[in-house]
Write a structure and sequence with these properties.
single chain; mainly beta; 11 strands; globular
């Protein structure tokens, strides 16, 4: 049974920072492309950032220069360091894994990030 569990969300003032974590079980992250997505109320889910098998990264334009995705395969964990947060960053943030051999996709349950003005 594959499980992805996010943590680190919460309430923060504009300009503040949060570090989100995603820990996997029943899955080895070294065989997966990892990503963070978010969904705000009334909006579609959107890509935030991805990190590849050997560490290559991709970011949405809206978070470039503010967010950093990283991974620690030994801990089976992926992180999202979110700095200079804005109210428009408010959303549920989801962890995503895509297994390279089969392209099977897994999702976490999400963690709420709320940025107040």
């Amino acid at each position: 049974q594959v499980q992805l569990v996010e943590s680190g969300g919460g309430l923060v003032q504009a300009g503040g920072s949060l570090r989100l974590s995603c820990v996997g079980s029943g899955i080895t992250f070294n065989n997966n492309i990892m990503g963070w997505y978010r969904q705000a109320p009334g909006k579609q889910r959107e890509l935030v950032a991805t990190i590849g098998i050997v560490g290559g990264t991709n970011y949405a334009d809206s978070v470039k220069g503010r967010f950093t995705i990283s991974r620690d395969n030994a801990k089976n964990t992926v992180y999202l360091q979110s700095n200079s947060l804005k109210p428009e960053d408010t959303a549920v943030y989801y962890c995503n894994a895509r297994t390279i051999v089969t392209n099977q996709v897994y999702w976490g349950q999400g963690t709420q990030v709320t940025v107040s003005s």
